[in-house]
Design a protein that fits this description.
The protein has two domains: 58 residues, Arc Repressor Mutant, subunit A; 116 residues, Tetracycline Repressor, domain 2 (Orthogonal Bundle), CATH 1.10.357.10. The longest helix is centred in the C-terminal third of the chain and has 28 residues. The termini are far apart. The protein is elongated. By secondary structure, it is mostly helical.
Amino acid sequence: MQPSVSKERGRPREFDTELALDNAMTVFREKGFHAASVSDLSQAMNLTSGSIYKAFSDKRTLFLNVFERYTSLRNTQLRQQIESAVTGRERIAEVLRFYQKSSREIEGRRGCLVVGSAVELLTFDDELAALVRQAIMRNKSVLVSLLEQGKSDGSVSHAVYTEAAASLMLCIAMGMRVAGKVENHQAAETVLELALKILD
C-alpha cells in the first residue's frame, strides 16, 4: 500500500522572480501602469493571474517591485557609463550619451519607466507619485554633482547657474526618452554638442 501524499494548497508555483519582474517591466514600459492589464502581465510573465496575485498581492505591488528593479538597474548602468570619464563635463556628456543610446530602436520604443510614470503622475496614489518624484530628483542630483565637479576642475564655466543647468539637462535627457518612442535620433553627436554649449 502506497503512503498517501498530501499536497500543499495555496502555494504559488516557483519561478525566477527577476525574470518575471523583467518581463513585467517591458509591459509597464510600453503601456504604462494603468493601461497594463493583469492579462497582459500574465502573458508576458508566463504566469497565471493567480500566481501573480499570490506572489505580489496586486498589480500595484508588482509595479512597485518592477519600478525598484528598473531604477536600480538603470542607476548601475549609468554609473558604469560615466566611471571612465575624468572631468565633470565629460561625465555630463556620458550621461547624455547614455540617454541617447537608450532612446534608439527597440529600447527607445519601449520607453523609460520613470519618464512614462511621470506622465501618469497625477493619477497615482501618494506613495507611487512620491516614488517617481524621488527617482527624477535623484537624477537631477547626479547632474548637480557633476556640474559642481565640472566647476571645480575647470571644465564647466563658473558663470553657469548649477540648479538651472541641471534642470535643463534633465529636461533634455527626459525629452530624449519621449522622442525615442516615436523616432530614432539622428545626428546624435551634434545634439550632444549643442546641449553641452550651455556649460560654456
